[in-house]
Amino acid sequence: MNWAAVNFDWNQVRGFLATVEEGSLSAGARALGLTQPTLGRQVAALEESLGVVLFERVGRNLSLTPSGRELLDHVRAMGEAAGRISLAASGQSQAVEGKVTISASDVLSAYFLPPIIAKLRRATPLIEIEVLATNQISDLQHREADIAMRHVRPEEPELIAKLVQEATAHFYATTEYLDRRGRPQSPEELDGHDFISFGEPERMIEYMQPFGLNLKRENFKLHCENGIVSWQMVRRGLGIATMEESVAMATPGIERVMTFLAPIKFPVWLTTHRELHTSRRIRVVFDALAEAFQGHSTASSNVRI
Questions:
Q1: Where are the domains of the chain?
Q2: What is the full DSSP assignment across the chain?
């Protein structure tokens, strides 16, 4: 390798890549934990060391020059390689201490993870746990999380996944709401009822059609991407919604409705990166989560509302 030909600093390359992918110097600086002037100096230093202009200003925005576009694919490859190096180094750690980030849906994070984490903390007090309560799929390959709990099986070959539970959900409402609005005994009796959607109503309408529920947009007066918020609306008697069975059973004043419908089944996949799975601290947390969720009755009994 011609070492003399490598005349740039990786930190400067990283600053260039963050600026491109985040869309601006200010956003790139936030992503890297830098100030905007510091990032600007890094990009300028890279331009100087390479002898090219990477960005040009168009009004208040930055636009890649032809030279910048030509370098971008190479720089992205460098970024991915740097990520793999970080993963490999993390995977070699054998100490049962350090930080482990778990990504899970808001409902899983609020109702299922706390008792599992409490038990884990007693067993391994040197492990630091961060929970990302999000309904978006975290990118494990880019270290947004070390472990992710998903309802879909990952397809990336670099990830390993374990099916830890086939969860069950039903439709629920409060007794007060049902006393006031009636208890529907067939799909035809749903027209006058209010439903609460987890996310966009159109998506929920489409999701419910295979169950023989031809609901209309007018049935959904309330919707929220956050499952915990939506469930609180149900608890206030504002309508009908789906919820995981053990969470609903632990909620006072809630009844299952539309019992003529088959249960809604959905998987819970525990996912991590192949290299991270060789880390003892990751393995300890992964195994604790798998054990708790596979013992469904144990996990269910620990749900607290």
A1: 3-91, 97-305
A2: --GGG--S-HHHHHHHHHHHHHSSHHHHHHHHT--HHHHHHHHHHHHHHHTS--EEEETTEEEE-HHHHHHHHHHHHHHHHHHHHHHHHHHT---S-EEEEEEE-HHHHHHTHHHHHHHHHHH-TTEEEEEEE-SS---TTTTS-SEEEESS----TTEEEEEEEEEEEEEEEEHHHHHHH----SGGGGTT--EEEES-HHHHHHHHGGGT----GGGEEEEES-HHHHHHHHHTT--BEEEEHHHHHTSTTEEEE-TTSPPEEEEEEEEEETTGGGSHHHHHHHHHHHHHHHSHHHHHHT---
